[in-house]
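Office hours follow-up: a student asked to see two folded examples consecutively, so here they are.
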Amino acid sequence: METAARTAPAPVIVAIDGPSGTGKSSTSKAVAEKLGLRYLDTGAQYRAITWWMLSNGVDVNDPAAVATAASKPSIVSGTDPSRPAIAVDGADASGPIRTREVTSAVSAVSAVPQVRAILTELQRTIAAGAERGIVVEGRDIGTTVLPDAHLKVFLTASPEARAARRSGELKGKERGDLAATREALARRDAADSSRKASPLAKAEDAEEVDTTELSLNQVVECVVTLVEAAMTRAGQTA
């Protein structure tokens, strides 16, 4: 893959949203590398705080308990797209946050307004501090976190394609069959789209990209082209 072959104007903020299994992470990291930008996985932050709650005996199904504990963990996100990292209270959490237990609990935790407020502030601070610019991926980046982003992209894909991709991401004994994975994604979509605090939604001015029939390289090239076009419209040179 061509790396940093093009240069984006500084600073440029790109918001990439969409449900699980649409290729957000792979696309976001690759776009950031191509354009020499930083990268932030906001979903990892929600997983990190969920993992902390589970590890510290907080009842994740009790919104009041989650709200009370929300400010306690220290979450630090690395923004190097070639080596994205996430630490909780100084400990590497990149592995633990990807377990099935965290996956099943993250929607409940992320629905708590106090959690979203804390992480939204953290995400805005990280984006503002990215000297050249940043690609930020999540579910409410274009609508809530960074509504003034230079470019907003909303990735979609068919349920079958999403389930296949997500099943391939699970390791060892956690890999499930496609039907079970598809059902889990449907439940996550319903929870994320119906929550009162910053639900999963496409921003009105977002560019929608259906990744069902596209390879990763094709999706990346599409988004890079959109970034360059956005900068041209803004009177900047990519």
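And the second, which I mentioned at the end of office hours:
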Amino acid sequence: MAVGESLWPHIYPVAGVRLGVAAAGVKYRDRNDVVLLEIKDGSSVAGVFTQNTFCAAPVTIAKQLLKEKTPRFFIINSGNANACTGRQGMEAAWETMQAVADISGESADRVLPFSTGVIGEPLPCGKISAAVPEAFNSLSVEGWEAAARTIMTTDTRPKAASVEVDVDGEVITITGIAKGSGMIRPNMATMLAYIATDAAISPDVLGTISRLAANRSFNRITIDGDTSTNDACMLIATGQSSAPALKCHGGEYFEKIAAAIVAVYQSLAQEVVRDGEGATKFVTVNVSGGQSQTESLQVAYSVAHSPLVKTALFASDPNWGRIVAAIGYAGIEGLDANGVRVSLDDVEIVRDGGRSPNYTEEAGQAVFNQSQFAINIDLGRGEASETIWTSDLSHEYVTINAEYRS
């Protein structure tokens, strides 16, 4: 179950990046579950990771190694998170990294590990290591779709975005894949995502763009309010385009490239929401009129995380009292309820502290019957605004997560 059509986009290969896949039998039978991603030497790599204290072994390793060296390979597995596995989990991750080093001739500390799947189970590193040669031999610039399918867990469809952008007369390519449909909440809010561009971008500038893009995309979505132990979002710049190198923060050139990368991130993040576990609705929550971005986000997430709001979304029930209740308990100091206005798309439902005189149940029902719509909230107390994307909470969500380990 997912919202909207499942259309695999046209993929523009990124010069300097190759991907290969293999079947290791980590959890799934008769499907690929290991991805090897190769990065051309001389590239820049940046990333953001989960802020969950119980971060997985591969997250701990990847964060540390990324500070020390530019990676040449990513080794990614689905079916097992290698989280809350202690010293054994760290050793298991290093074993898979060494398997990549052995076949590639690179040192193991230039291989970053990533895992997604069930928490608390030992990583079958022997199976993954044995599958590395198959993945290495299948490396290809055309490997994006196979990789996107391989990293899926409860996802119902692969997720990708790919664009070519004219920047001052030169074309740069940006392509990315992501997986995630549950255990999704900011800090940061996807399970795994890998985005690459052939633009030449210095490491410090790439780090800035990586954080900026994540904050405007994966840190603006929520499915269920749960922050995963394994979240990682990696950005690669190979420098293989003929476009001039981006070495400075700010300015028109920076803004053009950053905007293009942010657009790809947002497309992937929204696909995660559309494929939320059991999702039948894709809902945009716009909050304006805040005194700060922080309080605007606070209200947006209060609405998006409310089980009562989310179940009303699933039922296509325009029970707008649940929305205003969530606004009211968001904890905004000094919020004047009489100054708050709320609408569903263009249908005003609340103003002056009560139901809008223009609102009709029929109009509200017409909006809630749609699979995609917006909840617009104006706090009436400032100039700050924020937008997040969320989904409903369905019977299927409970079923998927109740049976996740079976």
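Two things to take away from it. The chain has two domains: 17-274, 282-402. The first strand starts at residue 17 and ends at 22.
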